[in-house]
Each structure stands twice: as C-alpha cells, then as structure tokens.
Design goal:
Length: 56
C-alpha cells in the first residue's frame, strides 16, 4: 500500500517550492551578514606579530 500512497501523494506546486528555497537563501544571507569584514585581516596581523617574535 505504501507504494500506492507514494503515487497518490500531493506534490508541492512550484510557487511553494520557490518560496521555500528563497526563505533558505535569505536565512543564509542573514546569518553571513553578522560576521565582521575585518576578521581575515586581523588574523593575518596577529600571525605577523607572532612570526616576528617566534619562529613558525
């Protein structure tokens, strides 16, 4: 019976699929927005200072 239920199940329409995908993209972009842009440069500066005093 489960095989028949698979074929009878309602399929999502394209609008709801597009909405769901857009919500995922927006959530991902919002989570990335909070990270500061200066962190990679700060990391490099810290490593440069450490290299100045310690052999790495």
């Amino acid at each position: 019976m489960s095989l028949l239920d698979y074929f009878r199940s309602e399929k999502k329409n394209t609008a709801s699929l597009a909405k769901e995908r857009l919500q995922i993209i927006v959530a991902h972009e919002r989570s990335q927005r909070g990270t500061p842009d200066y962190l990679p440069q700060l990391k490099q500066d810290i490593l440069d200072v450490i290299r100045k005093y310690v052999n790495i």
